[in-house]
Each structure stands twice: as C-alpha cells, then as structure tokens.
Amino acid sequence: MPAPIEALAIVSGRRSWQSHLTEAGQTPRAPPHPNRDATETLPKRSVPYGRAMAPAPHAATPAGRPTDEELSRRILDVGLDLLHEHGYAALRVEHVAKAAGCGKAAIYRRHADKAALVAAIVLAHVEVGECPDTGSVRDDLLEHALQNQRNQEGKGVAAGRAMSAILEPEVFALIWDSLFLVRRRHGERILDRAITRGELPSDVDPDVILDAVSGLTLLRHAIEGVRVEPRQYLALIDALLASPPRLLHASEGTD
Questions:
Q1: Domain map (residue ranges) of the chain
Q2: What pLDDT, on a 0 to 100 scale, did the predictor assign at position 25?
Q3: Which of 65, 144, 157, 164 has the CB geometry, 3.0–4.6 Å to 61, for a possible disulfide?
Q4: How far apart are CA 199 and CA 238, in angstroms?
Q5: Using DSSP, how many helices (H) and how many strands (E) does the chain show?
Q6: DSSP-assigned beta bridge partners for residue 246
Q7: What distance in Å separates the CA atoms of residue 119 and residue 139, rounded to the nearest whole number?
Q8: Which intervals carry biased composition (Basic and acidic residues) (predicted)?
C-alpha cells in the first residue's frame, strides 16, 4: 500500500504506476508521451467508462426475483457502501452477497475475485467525464479538476476507504486503462489544444500542470478532508498559466 504522499502522483495517472502493475504481476507499459499527437486513439478498453463488468441482462425472472441486471447493479451499490464502511482488507464477498440478497456464487459468476468486484464497483460509480473543450484552457482545466473532485466528495468512489481500495495494486491494475489513463489523456488533450491556440508554449511540461491540479484535489480531500473551492482551483491554474513549467532538456540535467 503506497504512502499517502505517493498517492498524489498515482491519482493523476502518471508516476508510480509501474510499481503497481509489477506488484500485481502485470507487465507495465510506457505512459503516454507528453508530445504525442493530440488525435492519438485511446487504447482499447475492456470495460466501458462508468459501467460494471457484468454480463448482458437477460429476460425478467419470475415475480419477486430481481433480473440479472437489477442484481448486478445491487451488488455494486451495496458493495460500495460496504467498501466505505469496512475498507478493502476487511471486505468479504459473503458480506456483499448477504447485503445484496444473493449467494456468493452469483457474485463469482460476475466477478472473478474480490479485486475484480472492487474494480467493477469503482468503474460503475466513477465519473470519468468528457474531455472539456470550452475554447479556454483556464475553463477546461477547471472543469477537468471539478470532475475529479466530484468523485472524491461524500461517499464518492474515490473518497475515504474507497480511495484506499483503488490504490491496492491488484485493483489499480484492473482500472488503469478505463480510468486513470483516460483521465490523463483528457488532461493532455486540454493542454495540446492550448498550445495550438497559442495559450501555452510548445515546450510546456504537461505532467507538472496536471499533477499540480489533481494533487491539490487529492491532498485536500483524501488527506485533509477539506473541500477545494472553484476560486482556489482558478488561483492555482492562473499561476500555472502565468508562468508555465517547461520541459527539461537532457542537457539541463536534473540537479
């Protein structure tokens, strides 16, 4: 389990992702290059944005019994409640089954194990959001930040103990492509368009800008329990745009 400060980078979908995939027994892929073509197609997703990994619904069952679709959704809803209540380590599939009014077999027909169940819970409740395109990098970055904030408010899927569950290596690996990578690409496209419009220099460092904005959300919400107001996001965004961080060239070193 990473230390809270390490989560600042993880939630933005850039640093420390290799260690999470390696711990989960998967081969890490290189993160997207900051200077890639803005029209690059996203990798194929195994799970649609914001949908659970559940089988296709079947015809309605006899009166009094939920349909497969209804039961699938109930499992994910009560699972989120139990995840907030107990956390990942103490979460038991049998407890989810009891709360959902089904047997463990019904859950295992839908999800291979606890990690897959929690990944499905996350993807069913998270707001990935559309990539903002208002014509202003300032407004786009604000909306991008607010999308992230909504997931961390109240009993959101990225709040409290649910956030800790997201950072478990076996869960993180399952949601990387459908959540973190997509969110990161959205942020990079916002900055790519800003460069095209002349709002930012061509050698701007997108990682520093996106890490700063997403890191503010995570630090305030997940660690301090304080809500970030839109005006506070804008103050940070304005400072970053007024003096945008630049990419370091190899000749400059990293002293």
A1: 68-124, 137-242
A2: 53
A3: 65
A4: 12
A5: 12, 0
A6: 204
A7: 31
A8: 34-43
Q: Residue 6 in 3-state DSSP?
A: helix
pLDDT of residue 160: 76
Of 89, 93, 59, residue with least CA distance to 76: 93
**Could you give the CA distance from residue 233 to residue 236 in angstroms, rounded to a whole number?**
5
Contacts 24+ apart (CB under 8 A), 151-157: 151/126, 151/127, 152/217, 152/218, 152/221, 152/222, 153/221, 153/227, 155/80, 155/81, 155/84, 156/125, 157/80, 157/121, 157/122, 157/125, 157/126
Point out which residues pair with 204 in neighbouring strands: 246
User: Over 70: is that where the pLDDT of 119 sits?
Assistant: yes
Q: Give CA separation, 185 vs 47, 128, 141, 192, 214, in Å.
A: 17, 11, 13, 10, 13
pLDDT one-digit tens code per residue, 172-206: 999 999 999 999 999 999 999 999 999 999 999 99
- Residue 150 confidence (pLDDT) above 70: yes
Vertex 123, ends 122 and 127: CA angle to 5°? 95
pLDDT tens-place string over residues 82-107: 999 999 999 999 999 999 999 999 99
CA atoms of 138 and 241, how far apart (whole Å): 8
The domain over range 68-124 is classified in CATH as 1.10.10.60: yes
Q: Is 131 helix (H, G, I), strand (E, B) or coil?
A: coil
